[in-house]
Amino acid sequence: MYIHKQPHPIYSRQHFIAVVAQASDTMDSPVLFLLISLSFSLMSSSSSLDTIHEGTSLSIEKLEDILISPDGVFSAGFYSVGDNAYCYAIWFNKPSRGKNQTVIWMANRDQPVNGKSSKLSLLKTGNLILSDAGKLTVWSTNTQSLSSVHLSLYNTGNLVLKNMEGITLWESFDFPTDTLLPQQLLTRSTRLVSSRSQTNYSSGFYKLFFDNDNVLRLLYDGLDVSNIYWPDPWLVSWEAGRSTYNNSRIAVLDTFGNFNSSDNFTVMAADYAPKLHRRLKIDYDGDVRLYSWDDEGETWFVSWQAIQKPCKIYGICGANSFCSYIVGSDRKCSCLPGFKMKNLTDWSYGCEPEFHLSYNRSESRFFQLPHVEFFGYDYGYFPNYTLDQCKNLCLQLRNCKGFQFTFSQDDGFSKCYPKTLLLNGYRSPDFPGDLYLRLPKQNFFSYEKSVQDFTLVCSSKGTVQLDRTYKRSRENGIVKFMLWFACGVGGLEIIGIFLVWCLLTRTRQASSVDKQGYLVGITGFRRFSYAALKKATKDFNEEIGRGAGGIVYKGVLPDNRAVAIKRLNEPNQGEGEFLAEVSIIGRINHMHLIEMWGYCAEGKHRLLVYEYMEHGSLAQNLSSRALDWKKMFGIAVGTAKGLAYLHEECLEWVLHCDVKPQNILLDSNYQPKVADFGLSKLQNRNIENASFSSIRGTRGYMAPEWVFNLPITSKVDVYSYGIVVLEMVTGKGPTKGVDAIDSGGETEPKRLVAWVREKRNEATAMSSWLEKIIDPLLEGSYEKDKMEILVTVALQCVEEEKDARPSMSQVVEMLLRQEIDSHSDDHGVNL
C-alpha cells in the first residue's frame, strides 16, 4: 500500500491569519503592528491584500495567494475539504474555540480541485475561472468586459468583480451556499443549501427558498423523496403567519439580529443589539439557525433557530428508522426492529429490512412500538376504526408497511393511518399513539427484545409499595458490630478488586490503541472475533478467491447471511492494507463498489468481512462463458460507473491500479461491483515520483505508464478497463496472445490490443471487422449499435498516450448515451 499526500498549505495560511487576528485582539504594540505589516507585505507579488487585477492567477501551491478583507475579518482562498481536495472559499478568519475557520461561501463545493497545479484566474476577457490540475474549468463567473476588471474582497464578506466603470459584473452575495451574511439578500433566484455533513461541504438535502406562493420555506430534497417541512405543511399560509400577497420574494438579515422576509416572517435574535458579526445558516441537519459571534468566548452561539424539536425535521434519520431524544435536545437515530443501516456512515440512507415480506395476510404480524410516530406517506385517514379493523385494512392494502393508531380515552375517538412509507419517524413520551410495524410471522420472536426495549418505562408511577410488616427483634450489640466489620472489610476488598480490574483494562485498551491505531478507521463497522470468523468459514475451508493481499473465503454469519471473508496474509504488509481498506471503504459508498460489513483485528490476525457476491467474479463467468450480450453490456456500464465514482466523485481521489476481471464481482442480478480498491494507491491524480518497484497491477492489464515509469494518473485505470472490455467482447485473454497469420502464411502470437487494431485497419466497414473480433459464442445475438460504441470506447481507453484516453465519466456518458438513443429510437438490431 502506497499513500502519497500533498502538504496542506491552505491550513498553514489559515492558521497564520488566525494567529495574527488573535494577536491583534490581545496586544496593542507598535512592534506588533510593524510585524504584522511586514508579514502581509511579504505575501505575494501576484496579489494585493484585498484585490487582484485581470491577467492574474492565484495558485493553490502558493501560500501568499490569498485575499483578505481590509478589516482582516474575512479571507478568500483555497480551502482543504479532503485529502488533496480543495474548494475556493471565503471564511471568517477568527477560529471558533477548538475549531477551524468558519466557511461562509464556496465556489465549487460539489467539484473540488486537485491540491497541485489548480488555479483561480482572472482573464483579460473579464471572466473569473477556477481550473483543475488537468486545465479543466470546474467553475467560472461567466462574465465578460471590454474594460479592465478587478476582484476585491469587501469587509462584508462579499467577493466582488467590477470593471473600470465601477459596474459590478459578479458578486458572491448573489450565489450563496449555506450561509447568509448581514446585508446579503435572499431572493426569488437564490437559495441556501445545506452541506452533506459536518465534514463534507458538498450540497446536502435541505434547502431554504421562496416557493411559487411567495412563502419562505424549508424543503427536504432527499435521495428518493422530497417534502416541504417548514412551516408545517398541513397549515395554510395565513395559519402559519405568512402572507402570499407579495411579489418581491426577498429576505435580509441586519447586524442587529433582525431577519425580515417579504412574506411577513420576522426573526429577532435573543441578543438583539448591534453586533459586529452575525450569520444565518441552514445546517447539515436541516435546521436554520442564527449565529452571533462572542468576542470574549471566541465562539459562535445560536441566538435563534427555526425548529425547536430536531426530531421533527424531515428525513433526518432516513427511511425505516426513527429519531429519539437523549440528553437535552440532542438526538439519535435507530433502525426499526428487523431493519439494519444501509450505509454505516450515513443515516440519510436509512435502514433496509433483514427479512423478506411477501405481504401475504397469513404470513404477517404486527409489532407495537409505543409512542412512535411516522408522519406523512399515509394511504389515507380512517377515523373511528378499531385496532382490529385497522390491522385488517393494512393487510388488505398492497405494500402497507404498518399503521399509526391513536385512541383518545377522553372521547373514545380513534384514528387509523396505514403507511406506504416509513419516513420521518420519531419517538416521544408525549405522543399519545403507537406504530404497528408489519413484519413476517417467521422469526417473529427474534424481534421481541427490540419490542421490550420500546416498552421499558422508568416512571415513578410504575413502582408499587410492598405491603409488608415485620416484628423488630431484640438487638445484639456484638453481633451487630461483627456484621458491620465484616461488611466493611468485604466492601474494601471488592473496591480494591474493581480498581485493579479497571486499571488493567484501561492499560490493555491503551496498549491496543497504541499498537494497532485502528479506532479512527474502523468507526461504524462491526468488529468480529477471530474465533467467530473461523467458525463462520468452517475453519477457512471454502476458498473463493485470491487477491493481492490475501485469500478470500466464503462464510455464513450467525444470522445466516453469506459473507466473503478476506484473510490478509503477511502481518507487516497486512496491517498497512488493513488500515487502508478500512479507512477508505469507510468513506466510500456506491452501488457498483463492493460493500464491507466488518473486520477483525485480533493479535496478528487481520480479516475483512464483505458482502457475498452470488455469481462470483467476472473472470469466472468469462471462463464458463455464462454471460450473454445484455449482461456483458450492463457489466461494462456498471464497472465504468464504479470507477468514475472512485476517480471523480469521492474526495479521496482513489486510483484502483489493478482493474481486471478477478476484481469485478457480480451479484445475484449480474450487477457488477468493483472490489479490492481498498488496496489501491490513495494518491493525487498526477504523481510524478511513482516507483515501478511498488506498482500494484496485473500483467496484460497494466498501462504503458507503469512500464516506462511515467507519472501515474487515473488514466491507468481507464487503460485496464479498456482491456477488460475487449476481453469480454472477444473472449480472448490479454496475455495469452492471439494467433494471427503473417505475410508468409504462418501463425504468430499477437497481443489482444494489437490484434483488434489490426483487424480494424484491414476492414473497410465497421460491421466487417466487428464480426472478425467478436466472440463466436455470442452467435450474433448482440445489438449492433451498442457493440460498435462499446468496442470504439474500449479502443479509445487503450490508447498508448494517456491524454488521448477518455475519463471514466466520459466513458459512462458515451455508453449511456448510446443506450438512451437505442431505447428512444427502439430500433436495436440483432445480427
From TrEMBL:
Where in the cell is the protein located? Membrane
Report any one BP term from Gene Ontology: recognition of pollen
Keywords attached to this entry: ATP-binding, Disulfide bond, EGF-like domain, Glycoprotein, Kinase, Membrane, Nucleotide-binding, Receptor, Serine/threonine-protein kinase, Signal, Transferase, Transmembrane, Transmembrane helix
Reactions catalysed: L-threonyl-[protein] + ATP = O-phospho-L-threonyl-[protein] + ADP + H(+); L-seryl-[protein] + ATP = O-phospho-L-seryl-[protein] + ADP + H(+)
GO cellular component terms, alphabetically, are: membrane
Q: Does the keyword Transferase apply?
A: yes
* UniProt-listed Enzyme Commission number(s): 2.7.11.1
Q: Which domain of life is it from?
A: Eukaryota
Q: How is the protein disposed in the membrane?
A: Single-pass type I membrane protein
Q: Which residues cross the membrane?
A: 481-504
Q: Does the entry feature the keyword Nucleotide-binding, yes or no?
A: yes
Provide the Apple domain boundaries: 351-440
Q: Which residues bind ATP?
A: K566
Which Gene Ontology molecular-function terms are recorded? ATP binding; protein serine/threonine kinase activity
Where's the Protein kinase domain? Answer: 538-820
Instruction: Give every Bulb-type lectin domain span.
Output: 43-174
What does the sequence similarity comment in the record state about its family?
Answer: Belongs to the protein kinase superfamily. Ser/Thr protein kinase family.
Name assigned to this protein: Receptor-like serine/threonine-protein kinase
Organism in which the protein naturally occurs: Carya illinoinensis
